[in-house]
Amino acid sequence: MLEIHRLVQNKFLTKQLVAIFFAIFSICYLQAEGTEHGNEASSSTHSHGVTEETSHHDGAEASAHGAESKKFDAGKMIFDHISDAHDWHLFGEGESSVSIPLPVILYSQSSGLKIFSSSNFHHGHSPYEGFKLNEEGHVLWENESNTEAIYDLSLSKNVVAMIIAVIFLLVVVLRMSRHYTSTKGKAPKGFYNLIEPLILFIRDDIAKPSIGHRSMQFMPLLLTIFFFIFVVNLFGLIPIFPGGANVTGNIAVTMVLALVVFITVTINGNKYYWKHILMPDVPKWMYIIIIPIEILGVVLKPFVLMLRLFANITAGHIIILGFFSLIFIFGSMGPAFGYAVSPLSVVFTVFMSMLELLVAFLQAFVFTLLSAIYIGMAVEEHHH
Amino acid sequence: MQLVTPAIGLVFWMIVTFGIVLFILKKYAWKPILSSIEDREKTIHNALSQAEQAKQEMARLHGENEQLLAQARQERDAMLREAREMREKIVGEAKVSADEEAKKLITRATDEINKQKLAAMDELKKEVANFSIQIAEKLLADRLENNDVQQKLIANHLSKLTAKASA
Questions:
Q1: Pick from A32, A181, A228: which is nearest to B21 by CB?
Q2: ipTM
Q3: A372 exposed, middle or buried (CB, 10 Å; 0-12, 13-18, 19+)?
Q4: Chain-chain contact of A256 with B18 (C-beta, under 8 angstroms)
Q5: Does A105 lie at the interface with B, CB-CB under 8 angstroms?
Q6: SS3 (DSSP) at A89
Q7: What pTM, to 2 d.p., does this model score?
Q8: A184 vs B13, B18, B39: nearest CB
């Protein structure tokens, strides 16, 4: 009885999530398309030598098209903010921008391991040691005919942001652990009162109902996933230096998280789980349809986990940046328009930030819950 | 497309970072925290059940006390009643014995009085006889002619005297 109830609940939740996911993903997709158009636009203006960056090299043309060079490109700005970079942009535009240079680590067969500061690229204007930075922030060979693979293991903006968030998480949780071991059996105090309900929530409302008697075995993984996503999400909402990076909105990050879940499920799957996939209780002739579907399902579950987190967080960043862009888009029509729109923009952004705080928690919760459900499916004991 | 293409560098660093975080937190944070939370829950659970037990024990002791008190009260009542009965009995007995003693004394006194009275009567008879003889002697000294008549007369008088005395 309880199982049916749980199944219905899960189904309902999944449906809701799929709906939300599609809604947000479609927004994200539209935005991304807009961005690509923006990019095309920017690159086309680039080729005509109108943007500020090239204007320094082509002084004559720049002065001629000075007014046009100030034109604000929302798509490019947003895209720059949500994608990874080799330096941490703080403020300013073009040559006058101030950013923190980050180490570039490159490996290729011919050049071996190369480590140098990203400031050597001068924001992509100058090549360094045979490498150059393209428009999208990728490191390429200076000689474009060279097709040898470059493994870019740089400590990029997202990596550094992630490490900062992780250090924060480690400090907080390790201190909590020390506090708990030193005052065993006593009530927690202070900040730990905020963390403990989350731990209890994951244990009692996520792990135990989804996994059952083996839940304690997976608690460390679920807690790590939850707090990692939650803290990194929150850091992403801080607009200035230690935050602001779109880490959990990066497909590489969510892919690794989903991969961890996938590996855990595959390693811990019991015979009932594998039997359900490879020898389901259906007539033999249906195996031809069912088994591919089941195998697809196994891969699709972590895949959806990956996409959901990526899409939600990226969408949040895009929407907040979009509201800010409104000020400059209207501002480019005339300063008065910009000032008129700014209060509205600020109000919307505040609202969105509040919503993003909720989403930061919600996505961490959903990722953890669905991971727990997948693990639960894999370790469930059937008593026929 | 760039947005949905995972960058090899980020994947590498993410695996390294997440692996380290998972290892450190699992070993040094989640296990101690979870076990201490569980310990605390057990402690609280035990304390609550102990409190419940103590409450029951208290109720039991209270009932027992009440019972003891009631018993003591009953015993006291019984003792008081017994004492009262005893007192009444003793007083009654004393009364009876005193009555008997008094009666005895009275009878003894009456006997003594009777005896004394008889003795006094005897003495008085003797005195009277003596007086009578003395009178008679005096009379006889005067008239001793007819002794027989005289004797008869004397006896006659004496019997009258005796009757008078005994009356």
A1: A228
A2: 0.76
A3: buried
A4: yes
A5: yes
A6: strand
A7: 0.70
A8: B39
